Amino acid sequence: MILADPFRPLDIRNAALIQTAFPAMRLARLAGGGHPATGVLGEGGKFAKLQAQLVKPVVPVRRVVMLHRNSRRKSVKYWLHLAKQAEKSGRLPLARHAEVRASMLLHQAD
Fold first, then answer.
1. Long-range contact list for 21-27, CB < 8 A, 24+ apart?
2. Which of 65, 77, 79, 95 could crosslink 102 through cysteines, CB 3.0-4.6 Å?
3. Residue 38, SS3?
4. Model pLDDT for residues 33-72, shown as the tens digit of each residue
5. Which residues contact 84 (CB under 8 A, 6 or more apart)?
6. Is the distance from CB of 33 to CB of 50 less than 8 angstroms?
7. Cα–Cα distance between 22 and 99 in angstroms, integer?
8. In angstroms, what is the C-alpha Rg of the chain?
9. What are the CB-based long-range contacts (under 8 Å, 24+) for 19-27?
10. Which segments of the chain does DSSP mark as H helices, in order?
C-alpha cells in the first residue's frame, strides 16, 4: 500500500509512478497528512495501529483511510495544513475555520 497526501501533487505523481512499476500496490489517500502522509497518525498516537494493519496479507484501503480520518479530528497538524491549502486555493472561510480549530486544539493541550 502506498500512503500519500492528495494535497501534495508531487506525492501523488510519485505514487502513480510506483503503481506503474508495482501495479498490485494500492493508494491510500490520507488527506492533510502532510509529508510523510502518516504525520497525523503519528501525532494522534495511531502509528502502531497503522503498522499492525500493514503487516496483514490484505488490508482494505478504507481501513487505513478511516484510521487517518479519525486521527485528524484532533490533529493540530491536520488543521494547520488544511488552513494553508484552503488559503492557497482561495477558500478563505474554510481557511479561517481550520485556523480556529487548530487554535482550539492547541489551547486544549495547555
1. 25/1, 26/1, 26/2, 26/61, 27/1, 27/2, 27/61
2. 79
3. coil
4. 888 888 899 888 899 999 998 898 888 999 999 999 999 9
5. 95
6. no
7. 39
8. 15
9. 25/1, 26/1, 26/2, 26/61, 27/1, 27/2, 27/61
10. 9-21, 39-43, 47-54, 61-72, 76-88, 92-109
